[in-house]
Specification:
The structure holds 3 protein chains of 3 kinds.
Chain A (H helix, E strand, L loop, with lengths): L1 H19 L2 H26 L7 H18 L3 H23 L4 H21 L1 H4 L13 E3 L3 E3 L4 H23 L2 H11 L1 H5 L5 H21 L2 H4 L9 H14 L6 H19 L3 H15 L3 H6 L7
Antiparallel strand pairs in A: 1-2
Helix pairs in contact in A: 2-7, 2-10, 2-12, 2-13, 3-4, 3-5, 3-10, 4-10, 8-10, 12-13
Chain B lengths: L2 E12 L2 E7 L2 E3 L4 E4 L6 H9 L6 E6 L2 E2 L5 H7 L1 E4 L11 H12 L14 H13 L15 H14 L4 E5 L7 H17 L3 E5 L3 H7 L2 E6 L2 E6 L1 H6 L1 H6 L6
Parallel strand pairs in B: 4-9, 4-10, 7-8, 8-9
Antiparallel strand pairs in B: 1-2, 1-3, 1-5, 5-6, 10-11
Helix pairs in contact in B: 3-4, 3-5, 4-5, 5-6
Chain C lengths: L1 H31 L6 H18 L4 H22 L9 H23 L15 E4 L2 E4 H23 L1 H11 L1 H6 L4 H23 L9 H16 L4 H21 L4 H15 L8
Helix pairs in contact in C: 1-5, 1-8, 1-9, 1-10, 2-3, 2-4, 2-8, 2-9, 3-8, 5-6, 9-10, 9-11, 10-11
The chains are: A mainly alpha, B alpha/beta, C mainly alpha.
Chain lengths: 311, 250, 285
């Protein structure tokens, strides 16, 4: 009950944010929401299924470029976003077939290599992706269902609400998934692959499902970006971008539901604070990672929860 | 008495070493069977081959006259074969309840369900509660599996093995690593499960008390081959068997 | 035809840098079981230290290289002794994460100490000039690199096959407990192997300074290729790393020539194919 109340209050606060926050704060809030979606998907793979992917940014980029290309020809927000998600999902399903047959270290390296393959495509394939200039002039297309309504997205608050709505939907769905039988099967794979196979569960099938869902979430986060920034560029697919959900989740807590979300907030907060004192915020982030891995693998959430994370 | 499992010239080799060689075994349904033998006799390898954990290099395996030689472990479970492991293989981060719930869900083919909650699977939940009671672990149902005592983890291990409601269940050294008190508890549980469930148990054991008090049939292995098999009394009298144990009290 | 030969030699010289990097990476994985993401950073530090000693302070070229090997050895020692050692028992994922954190730290540390602008150190005078290969001028220094790379490969091979230390290392790689039982001090050995691997990487970076740019991020760019090489050759396999380095180096050289847009893509594709077809690598068991 208490948790539900807390969540309700949080949602209300978030819904009221535009009333007391300026444009820049909304901009940052949108980015935090995007990172949360991105990180939740990543953690389905890592915290729940035990697979560490260093290539999620590849799917993020596919979602972003997909949405961008759609919006450049048919400026309707929903079509662009859904289109971007679907394309990202298809690509992750395809690559998933190739990646999930392998054990953990090889899996991580394969995902790294596929992510970078997507990066090199984005960088070099000028005709399709605009090369290292990327795609520019992407409109913040109106939210419309022909015949029903058409809402202008130029004001930042309007777009904020769209992103918030998608984020809430994504979080809700994620909650259903991880508490479902499928979610339990994935956790079984994380805890003991051999045992999971020996109780009749096809390990490959659930790894693929986990991988595809993670790809869809990355794609959603990516698809929500172009209308905000109006440009998409190759670094979106680079492995250093793949590191963001990894860091956010590690920060917040790998083995908890809200860890990726808490971590995303912390990530931006930390970045904001650190940047005021030094330009070497990457190093500070690195130090935080080292400290977390050696001492606090359960992340911030574990420090505050009673059970505590040990592994 | 029907044959539930049959092997033909089963063999598994690691380089020049024969872990299992020319094993022709027929296991009868309903007969509690123990596989014994000195260390390195190939007992665990045999279980691994029969449960699908390893693939044989030679020979065939039949479950109720259906060939299963190259089937993966998950397919064999669907057919009614399950196992427990010598080295504890539970799900440490999941709760005790979830440890049992997962194999039950798998058996009921509910694991593809992505949007309904685990709790709403009434049939599975009910069964899991029952099995939890069977293995005396209701008290710990919300604790993470990894936090249980060693002995309780073994009980959980057995619970996971029977949660699949198997017709044939392999237990690999269930008393391994247990102190005397835990050993008694495990023995009690195996005895109880054997008598209350319609499952044929095949166990690998070193503890001769357990072997001789529970078994209807004993298979003796040595150097990868079946040396002898028969009723407990016959095995006890068998000179060849006594020799390989070099005068141990069996 | 001449172009192919020429480009092949170019590729071969690149292969030597890659070999030095990949060798350390694969040895560390084979013995310690750790995949050191930050290995490229050690390569980069080797380049920066050499630039400082030789390019800035005017120290003799050979001495500068020796000094930078020592400097990186110290860095490597600290990394292993005070950080990596604490996480050997953990899932590989955490090792990747920890070493990734080190990449971030080293990248910024380098910017902090040396500034973010790329450096171009001078060429030692006795290496200046070119040699005519198939009628085209080929930098003499690159020939030196090829020769040095081969020499190091032979030395390393001898070290591991013929010396007592090498035998201990190989024994510990295949069976840690057994090695410990016969008196090998595993923690010290691990530190030693890690430092050795770090020095190999540093050597690669150091040797590259006269011809390659010294800038932040050069390590990160190469670590991925080093991964690819160790995968192709087989994790933990030195011979495989050497062959893999030659494959990747020459392929990327030919790739730039023949498929200028997609040579990066090509290399990744090869790794993906190897992983899917023979994940233990060409020489893996």
């Amino acid at each position: 009950m208490k948790t539900r109340l807390a969540i309700l209050i949080l949602v209300v606060l978030l819904a009221l944010l535009p009333a007391y926050a300026g444009k820049y704060a909304l901009y940052v809030a949108i980015h935090i929401l995007l990172l949360s979606i991105f990180s939740l998907g990543f953690n389905l793979l890592f915290g729940y299924t035990g697979l560490l992917s260093f290539g999620q940014a590849g799917f993020y980029a596919v979602g972003a470029y997909g949405c961008a290309k759609i919006l450049l020809t048919y400026p309707s927000l929903l079509v662009g976003i859904v289109g971007g998600v679907v394309i990202a999902g298809a690509v992750s399903l395809l690559l998933g077939f190739l990646c999930i047959r392998h054990t953990r270290i090889y899996f991580s390296m394969l995902t790294l290599s596929f992510g970078m393959m997507i990066f090199s495509l984005a960088w070099k394939w000028r005709d399709m992706t605009g090369g290292d200039d990327g795609l520019v002039g992407i409109p913040r297309a109106p939210l419309e269902i022909p015949g029903l309504f058409k809402i202008n997205m130029a004001p930042m608050e309007n777009y904020y609400y769209v992103v918030l709505a998608f984020a809430i939907l994504a979080i809700y769905l994620f909650h259903r998934i991880v508490h479902s039988p499928m979610g339990l099967a994935m956790q079984g794979i994380r805890d003991s692959e051999t045992r999971t196979a020996c109780i009749g569960i096809s390990v490959r099938k659930y790894r693929l499902l986990s991988f595809t869902i993670a790809g869809l979430y990355a794609g959603l986060a990516g698809a929500l970006l172009p209308p905000l920034e109006s440009t998409v560029t190759p670094p979106l697919a680079h492995w250093s971008h793949s590191a963001e959900p990894v860091l956010a989740t590690l920060l917040g807590g790998v083995y908890s539901f809200s860890g990726p979300i808490v971590g995303s907030v912390l990530f931006y907060l930390l970045k904001d604070i650190i940047v005021r004192f030094t330009e070497y915020w990457q190093m500070c982030l690195g130090i935080i990672v080292v400290v977390l891995v050696i001492g606090f693998r359960g992340g911030v959430v574990s420090i505050f929860s009673r059970k505590g994370g040990r592994r | 008495m029907k044959a539930i499992l049959r092997t033909e010239s089963l063999g598994k080799y690691f380089g020049h070493m024969a872990a299992v060689h020319e094993v022709n075994l027929t296991l009868q349904e309903g007969l509690f069977t123990s596989v014994i033998g000195p260390n390195g006799a190939g007992k665990t390898t045999l279980i691994n081959l029969l449960s699908g954990y390893m693939l044989p290099d030679r020979g065939k395996i039949y479950f109720r006259e259906k060939e299963i030689t190259r089937l993966g472990p998950d397919k064999r479970v669907k057919m009614g074969i399950s196992r427990s492991f010598q080295v504890m293989n539970i799900f440490p981060r999941m709760t005790v309840f979830q440890n049992i719930l997962l194999p039950v869900l798998s058996r009921l083919n509910k694991t593809s369900s992505a949007f309904s909650s685990q709790q709403s699977q009434k049939e599975a939940v009910g069964e899991a509660e029952k099995i939890l009671g069977e293995v005396w672990l209701q008290e710990e149902k919300d604790s993470p599996g990894g936090e249980l005592s060693h002995g309780d983890q073994r009980l959980l291990e057995l619970g996971i093995a029977v949660a699949a409601n198997p017709q044939l269940c392999f237990l690999d050294e269930p008393s391994s690593g247990m102190n005397p008190i835990e050993r008694i508890k495990v023995l009690e549980l195996v005895k109880k499960l054997a008598s209350e469930r319609k499952t044929t148990f095949i166990i690998v054991e070193h503890d001769m008390d357990i072997v001789f008090s529970l078994s209807d049939w004993i298979v003796v292995m040595n150097r990868g081959e079946v040396l002898a098999e028969g009723k407990p009394g016959d095995i006890r009298e068998n000179q060849v068997v006594r020799d390989i144990y070099l005068g141990e009290e069996i | 035809m001449e172009t192919l030969v020429f480009q092949g030699l170019v590729g071969l010289s690149v292969s030597m840098y890659l070999w030095l990097l990949a060798a350390g990476l694969t040895i560390v994985f084979g013995v310690l079981g750790v995949l050191n993401f930050a290995h490229g950073s050690l390569f980069m530090l080797g380049a920066y230290f050499t630039f400082t000693y030789y390019g800035l302070w005017g120290v003799n070229f050979w001495l500068a290289i020796a000094l930078s090997l020592l400097s990186v050895a110290v860095v490597g020692y600290f990394m292993e002794r005070f950080f990596l050692r604490h996480i050997y028992h953990l899932d590989h994922a955490y090792q990747l994460l920890l070493t990734f954190g080190f990449i971030l730290i080293f990248d910024d540390a380098v910017k902090m100490i040396w500034g973010g602008v790329a450096k171009i150190p001078p060429m030692p005078s006795f290496f200046e000039g070119t040699v005519s290969v198939v009628g085209r001028p080929f930098p003499f220094y690159n020939l030196f690199i090829i020769g040095t790379g081969l020499a190091v490969a032979i030395v390393v091979w001898l070290l591991f096959e013929k010396t007592w230390w090498g035998k201990m290392v190989r024994a510990s790689a295949s069976d840690r407990e057994m090695a410990s039982a016969i008196g090998v001090n595993i923690p010290t050995l691990f530190t030693g192997v890690f430092v050795f691997g770090a020095m190999l990487a540093a050597l690669g970076g150091a040797l590259g300074t006269p011809v390659r740019v010294v800038a932040p991020g050069i390590g990160a760019a190469m670590i991925i290729q080093a991964f690819i090489i160790t995968v192709i050759g087989g994790l933990g396999n030195l011979k495989g790393a050497f062959v893999g380095a030659i494959i990747v180096g020459t392929l990327s050289a030919y790739g730039i020539l023949l498929f200028p847009v997609f040579e990066l893509f090509l290399i990744f594709l090869i790794m993906a194919v190897v992983l899917m077809v023979k994940p233990q690598g060409l020489f893996g068991g």
